[in-house]
Specification:
CATH superfamily of the largest domain in chain A: Winged helix-like DNA-binding domain superfamily/Winged helix DNA-binding domain
Largest interface: A-B, 37 and 37 residues
Oligomer: homodimer
CATH topology of the largest domain in chain A: Arc Repressor Mutant, subunit A
Structural class of chain A: alpha+beta
CATH class of the largest domain in chain A: Mainly Alpha
Largest sheet of chain A: 3 strands, antiparallel
Number of helices of chain A: 4
Order of helices and strands of chain A: HEHHEEEEEH
Distance between the termini of chain A: 62 Å
Number of domains of chain A: 2
Number of strands of chain A: 6
DNA sequence: GTGATTATGATAATCGATTCTCATGTCATG
DNA sequence: CATGACATGAGAATCGATTATCATAATCAC
C-alpha cells in the first residue's frame, strides 16, 4: 500500500547528502541549475534536484531564497540572520552578513512586520575584474 | 511608412493620463491588474495597460517595482527614496517611507553596490482588522 | 534471489506573467 | 467621406520556472 505516491517522498534520496554538501560548500545561495551543474558527473536530473531541495526545505534543512525575476536559490537553514547581494552582471547571489539598524521600525504605524529582506545590487568583485 | 510597427508606440494612448492618475492616486505601487480593475468601466484591455505602463517606464514617468513571485507593480517615478511592505494576506504592496542606516555599507569588501531594496513583510492594518 | 516498493530521469504539462498577433476601430487630415 | 497611420482588445503565443507523468532502474524486505 502506498500513500503519497506521486508527491514528494519522505527523504530517502540517494542524492540528498551530496546536494546538501553542494549547497553548504557554495557559501552563497545556489539555484537548482547550479546544484545540477555541480553534480553533473553524477547524472542527477533536474526533477530530482527539485524534489530533494523541496524536501529539505520542508524538513528544515534548507531555506529558499526568493528574488525578483530569478529562479529560487537555496541556502543552509541554520545560517545566522543575514541578507543578499545580487550581481547585475553574472546574476550570482552572495551573502551579506549582518543587518541594518532599525529596519523593521520603518513600517508605518499599524503595519505588523514579521520579516524583512534587504537586497543589494551591483557588481561582484569577480565581474569588476572581468570588466577592467 | 511605419517604423516600430508592432512594438511600443510613442506615447499617444488615450488611456495614458487615466492610467497615470490611477497609479498616482493609489498611493502605493499597483499591478497591471489593479490598474485594469480600476478602469474597468472604460473597457481598457490588459495589453493596452501593459503597453502604456511600459511606455511610461521608458519615458521616465513610472517606476517598475519588482518583487519575488509577484506581478510587477508600478509607482510614480518621482517619489523620494523609500521602500516597500508586502502584505502576506492580501498581497497588496505599500510604501514605507525612509531608509535604514548604512544599508549599502553592509556589502563585504570588494562589492560595488549600485542600489538596494528593503522589503518588509507581514500584515497590513486592513488585514489585521479583518482577522479580528 | 525474488517480488514489491519506491526513486529516478526524460520530457511533457502546467503556471503566471507578459508580449505578440492581427482584425478592427479610431482619428486626423485632405 | 476617403485614406492612411496608428491604437486597441481578444486571445494566442511565449517565456522561464517548476511540477507532474510514467516507464524504468534501484533498493528493500524477506
Amino acid at each position: 500500500m502506498r500513500i503519497d505516491y506521486h508527491n514528494h517522498m519522505a527523504q530517502r534520496s540517494r542524492y540528498t547528502d551530496e546536494i546538501l554538501r553542494v549547497v553548504s560548500d557554495a557559501g552563497r545561495p545556489v539555484s537548482v541549475d547550479e546544484i545540477r551543474d555541480a553534480l553533473r558527473e553524477s547524472g542527477v536530473g533536474t526533477a530530482t534536484v527539485y524534489r530533494v531541495v523541496n524536501n529539505c526545505v520542508e524538513g528544515g534543512k534548507l531555506k529558499k531564497v526568493e528574488l525578483p525575476n530569478a529562479a529560487a536559490r537555496f541556502e543552509p537553514a541554520d545560517l545566522p540572520h543575514h541578507h543578499h547581494f545580487e550581481c547585475d552582471s553574472c546574476r550570482k547571489v552572495y551573502d551579506v552578513p549582518g543587518c541594518a539598524q532599525g529596519v523593521a521600525d520603518l513600517a508605518p504605524e499599524g503595519f505588523e512586520v514579521s520579516q524583512h529582506e534587504i537586497l543589494l545590487k551591483g557588481t561582484c568583485p569577480e565581474c569588476q575584474e572581468a570588466s577592467v
